[in-house]
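Section 3.1: Structural characterization of target chains.
Under the original work plan, the team committed to producing a structural model for every single-chain target entering the pipeline before any wet-lab resources were allocated. The record below documents one such target. The sequence was received from the expression subgroup and is listed exactly as submitted; it comprises 204 residues.
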Amino acid sequence: MRLEVVIVKKKKVLKFITILLFLGCVIGYTSYKGYKKYEDNKNGIGETIDAFNGVEVYYNGSEYGNVHGKHYSKDGYYYGYEWQCVEFIKRYYYDYLGHEMPDGYGNAKDFFDNSIPQGQVNEKRGLVQYRNGHNEMPKVNDILIFNDTTYGHIVIISEVGDDYIEVIQQNMGTQTRDKFQLKKDGNNYYVGGHRTPVGWLRKE
């Protein structure tokens, strides 16, 4: 009899814990959605939230997959989808550096071609490609490429210090700037930290 009572009590406790966990998940999810809605209301889609060398970073909302149509320059050059990370990179290179990519299509991670040797031209982008961990130090205005997610991510290096680099980016919510570690090992340079890029592209 006592054993049955203990079993019943344990079942009730487990049921109570399950309900609490479920409610916690619901409250957490609701709070997260509410925060994202707050961010979207605070910063309108397409609103300027940063700039570098006169090229603006636009807010794309709290969902990274948001697409708001295609964006072109006044003379018809295709920047990319509004306001994805690739769009900012192509617009920056075209408007500030006067560089038109021979092939500007593809996801962010497609901008790095693993078949290209260190320091050779990436013909699709018309830029010199360097691998992370090799013998070329990253510079301001380089394009840093990450291939660690489904579509990847792409940013512009805005500052280079002795042991760090700062980048500017689009489509990361309101986080337009980020920093990464820069380490030198002999003649090789390594960029890393909370995320590791595969390499960088440069106009030379």
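Residues 169 and 175 are 8 Å apart (CA to CA).
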